[in-house]
């Protein structure tokens, strides 16, 4: 992937406009932290890029290396190297986890992966994510704990090796050890040149993965872009400064997000040195 370009993107859900003109470019080997109060369109943006049919694009464009993403079906987007780790992964009864993983890998290959190679890769990825190989023979996400579902999403990322990974609050509900495990997997993929668009309300994940750029979504638009110093400022001041300095009235304001930081907690100390 060279670049994914989003221009003037408007998206509605059940006839209610959520995104109101998003402009954002994601370059190769770039990790963007996507911040913003709850309900302002972050997850909607990821769903629209991936092609969730609930989200209707009413205006604007998304291009991937010059190709029209909006003209692609969901499976075509995945084959082009776009991956979404969901905030709430669905349980899929009847679909064996290993069968799903193997089929998804083969969808991006000219020749099917050999069985030995597949299980060798699965074993390696499972060890990295501290997932038992027994989970490979269970139905996809069925009976998985919240943490297991999130780690299974990252295991998929490791096996599929996409060009762009979009992570929607992948760290929510994880304990410190699982968080470090997930961040280590992200850093491994960053070193290989994978691009990321990452949503999190917690500074601790961003401290571990070190995003290259920060974008803040307010009222369905990208209101602020810049460096990692934006994370520190939101961590200490919330989003109030955007209202007062930029003159942007924050709709559907989440008071808890303005009165508390995005991640000052004991886990900051606990993750040091890991």
Description:
The protein is an alpha/beta fold. The protein has helices spanning 42-50, 74-79, 97-106, 115-128, 146-160, 176-191, 203-209, 229-237, 240-246, 255-259, 267-270; strands at residues 3-13, 16-27, 31-35, 55-64, 67-68, 82-85, 92-96, 139-140, 164-168, 195-199, 213-218, 221-226. It contains eleven helices and twelve strands. The strands form three sheets. A six-stranded mixed β-sheet has the order 6-9-10-3-11-12, sandwiched between helices. The protein has a four-stranded antiparallel β-sheet with strand order 2-1-4-5. The chain has a two-stranded antiparallel sheet with strand order 7-8. The longest helix is centred in the C-terminal third of the chain and has 16 residues, at 176-191.
Keywords:
274 residues; alpha/beta; 6-stranded mixed β-sheet; 4-stranded antiparallel β-sheet; 11 helices; 12 strands; globular; disordered C terminus
Shape: globular
User: Span from first to last CA?
Assistant: 31 Å
Largest sheet: 6 strands, mixed
Question: Which range best describes the helical content: under 10%, 10-25%, 25-40%, 40-55%, 55-70% or over 70%?
Answer: 25-40%
Q: How much strand?
A: 25-35%
* Widest sheet: strand ordering: 6-9-10-3-11-12
Helices, by number, come to 11
Q: What are the secondary-structure elements, in order, as H or E?
A: EEEHEEHEEHHEHEHEHEEHHHH
